[in-house]
C-alpha cells in the first residue's frame, strides 16, 4: 500500500488526506496545534454557552465545493443553514444594499438599471455555476473544460473591482459589490480585484451564504470522521520543523505557507522553488473582536437585523480608500469591518437572549495597534446603542492569528496576498502550482489556487496531482537522496 504524510491539518490538509485515503493510500496527518482544523474551528471565546468561530464563518464556497459536495459529510452530522438575508451593506443614510440568495430578489431590491445590471452579471454564471466551478476552483492557467462559461464569467473578473462598480448607478449596488470584493484584502483599483467578489457572489447566489450548525468546527469534525473511517490517522501536537522529522512515505503534502515549506525542506528544495517560496508575498492582516451582545445589534437599517453577514465600509469610495491604506501599511480611521451574525441561522450558538457576534477589521500586515475601539465605533455608527448592549468581548490581534496558525503570517488569514500574479499563478510561476519541484512533495495550502475558503479544493487539487505522479510510477523511480530531482 502506498503511504502519504500530510503536514498541517487545516481544511485543505484534511481534504488532501481524504482524497488520498479514498484512493487507497495510507495517510497520516501531522498537525502542530493541539486541535486540528486550522481556520475552521469554533469554541467559547467570551462567555460560557456562546459559540464563536475562530476564523472562517460563512460558507457559500463550502457547500458549492466540487470536492466536498461528493463526500456525504452529512453522515457525520454536518448540517448547513441559511439566514433569512445573506448579506446587508448599511449606508450612512440608513439604507442598505441587500444580498439575497435569489438573483431576481436582489435585483428587485436594487431597482431600475442597477437591478438589470446585477441580473446581467450573475444570472448566467449562477445558472451554470456547478460546471463553472470545475474551472474556477482549480489552476487558472490551463485549458478549461467549459471555456465559453469561463469566458463569460472571466471577462469582468479580469477587471479592477472599481471598474465593475462604476457600471452601477446607485451607491447601494456599488457598495454591495465592493464589500464582497473587499474580501480579497486587495486595493480595488488593481486588475483582477473583481474576481474574488464575483466568485463569492456567484457561489452565494447558487448556494447561499450558509453557516455550519454548531460552528465551522463541525466541518472539521466531519472531515476527520470520514478520514478515520477510511483508515487515516490524525496526530496533533506534532510541529514539523525539518524534513528529518518526516516518517518515510511515498508522498508528502504540505498545508503550510510557502515560506514554512522552504524552512522544512531546506536544501532539498530546488533553488528556483526555494527563492519563489521565500519571496512569497503576504497581505494585510485581520484584527478580530468577538462580542457577547444582549438582545442582538440594534441596526438602523432593518435588513441588517436579519442578515447573516453585515459589511461595514460605507460607500464604495470609502471601502476602496480603506483597502488602499491597509495594503500600504497605514491604519485607516474607519476600517472595513465584517460582522457575522451566525446565530440568526443557528440559534444554538446563543445563550438565551445573549448572542455571539463575530467581527474583524482589515488592518495592515503585522499591525501591532489596538483596533477594538475602531470596530465598536464602526458598528455604533450603523447601530446606535450597540456599545451599551456589549456584555463582554475577546480580541485576537494579527500576532495572535499568526501564533495560533503559522500559515497566517502577520495576521494574513488569506495565506498570501491575492494580487493578480499570486491569484493566477500561486506561489511560483509555472503550470503546476502544487508541485514543489521535489518528487513526491506537494503544496496544498490556501497559497495555491483557488485560494482561501473552507472548500478543500487546494488540498483536493494537490492530492490529484500527487496521485497522477504516483500512478505514473514516480515513487518507484525516485532515488532516496537529499538532492532535488525534476518537478513532481
Automatic annotation (TrEMBL):
Specify one Pfam family.
NAD_binding_8
Q: Which residues cross the membrane?
A: none
In terms of superkingdom, the source organism counts as: Bacteria
* Name of the featured protein: Phytoene desaturase family protein
The record lists the organism as: Kitasatospora misakiensis
Q: What is the lineage of its organism?
A: Bacteria, Bacillati, Actinomycetota, Actinomycetes, Kitasatosporales
Amino acid at each position: 500500500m502506498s503511504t502519504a504524510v500530510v503536514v498541517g491539518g487545516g481544511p485543505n490538509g484534511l481534504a488532501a488526506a481524504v482524497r488520498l485515503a479514498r484512493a487507497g493510500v495510507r495517510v497520516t496527518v501531522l498537525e502542530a496545534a493541539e486541535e486540528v482544523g486550522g481556520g475552521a474551528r469554533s469554541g467559547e471565546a467570551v462567555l460560557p454557552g456562546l459559540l464563536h468561530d475562530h476564523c472562517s464563518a460563512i460558507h457559500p464556497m463550502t457547500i458549492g465545493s466540487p470536492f466536498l459536495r461528493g463526500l456525504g459529510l452529512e453522515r457525520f452530522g454536518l448540517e448547513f443553514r441559511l439566514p433569512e438575508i445573506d448579506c446587508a451593506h448599511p449606508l450612512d443614510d440608513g439604507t442598505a444594499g441587500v444580498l439575497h440568495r435569489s438573483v431576481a430578489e436582489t435585483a428587485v431590491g436594487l431597482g431600475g438599471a442597477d437591478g438589470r445590471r446585477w441580473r446581467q452579471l450573475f444570472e448566467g454564471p449562477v445558472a451554470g455555476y456547478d460546471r463553472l466551478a470545475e474551472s474556477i476552483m482549480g489552476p487558472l492557467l490551463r485549458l478549461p473544460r467549459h471555456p465559453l462559461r469561463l469566458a463569460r464569467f472571466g471577462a469582468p473578473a479580469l477587471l479592477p473591482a472599481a471598474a465593475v462598480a462604476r457600471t452601477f448607478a446607485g451607491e447601494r449596488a456599488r457598495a454591495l459589490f465592493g464589500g464582497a470584493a473587499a474580501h480579497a484584502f486587495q486595493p480595488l483599483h488593481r486588475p483582477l480585484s473583481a474576481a474574488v467578489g464575483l466568485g463569492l457572489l456567484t457561489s452565494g447566489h447558487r448556494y447561499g451564504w450558509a453557516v455550519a450548525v454548531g460552528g465551522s468546527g463541525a466541518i472539521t469534525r466531519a472531515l476527520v470522521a470520514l478520514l478515520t473511517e477510511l483508515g487515516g490517522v490524525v496526530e496533533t501536537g506534532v510541529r514539523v520543523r525539518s524534513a528529518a522529522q518526516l516518517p518515510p512515505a511515498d508522498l508528502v503534502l504540505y498545508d503550510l505557507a510557502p515560506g514554512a515549506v522552504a524552512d522544512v525542506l531546506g536544501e532539498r528544495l530546488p533553488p528556483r522553488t526555494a527563492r519563489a517560496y521565500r519571496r512569497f508575498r503576504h497581505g494585510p492582516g485581520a484584527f478580530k473582536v468577538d462580542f457577547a451582545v444582549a438582545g442582538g445589534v440594534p441596526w438602523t437599517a432593518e435588513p441588517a437585523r436579519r442578515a447573516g453577514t453585515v459589511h461595514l465600509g460605507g460607500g464604495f469610495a470609502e471601502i476602496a480608500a480603506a483597502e488602499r491604506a491597509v495594503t500600504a501599511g497605514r491604519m485607516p480611521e474607519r476600517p472595513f469591518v465584517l460582522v457575522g451574525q451566525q446565530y440568526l441561522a443557528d440559534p444554538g450558538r446563543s445563550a438565551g437572549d445573549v448572542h455571539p457576534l463575530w467581527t474583524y477589521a482589515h488592518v495592515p500586515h503585522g499591525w501591532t495597534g489596538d483596533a477594538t475601539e475602531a470596530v465598536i465605533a464602526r458598528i455604533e455608527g450603523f447601530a446606535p446603542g450597540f456599545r451599551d448592549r456589549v456584555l463582554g468581548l475577546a480580541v485576537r490581534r494579527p500576532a495572535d492569528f499568526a501564533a495560533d496558525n503559522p500559515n497566517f503570517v502577520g495576521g494574513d488569514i488569506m495565506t498570501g496576498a491575492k494580487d493578480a500574479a499570486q491569484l493566477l499563478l500561486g506561489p511560483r510561476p509555472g503550470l503546476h502550482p502544487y508541485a514543489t519541484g521535489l518528487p513526491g512533495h506537494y503544496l496544498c495550502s490556501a497559497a495555491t489556487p483557488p485560494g482561501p475558503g473552507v472548500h478543500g479544493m487546494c488540498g483536493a487539487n494537490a492530492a490529484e496531482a500527487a496521485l497522477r505522479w504516483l500512478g505514473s510510477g514516480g515513487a518507484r523511480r525516485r532515488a532516496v537522496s537529499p538532492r532535488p530531482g525534476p518537478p513532481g
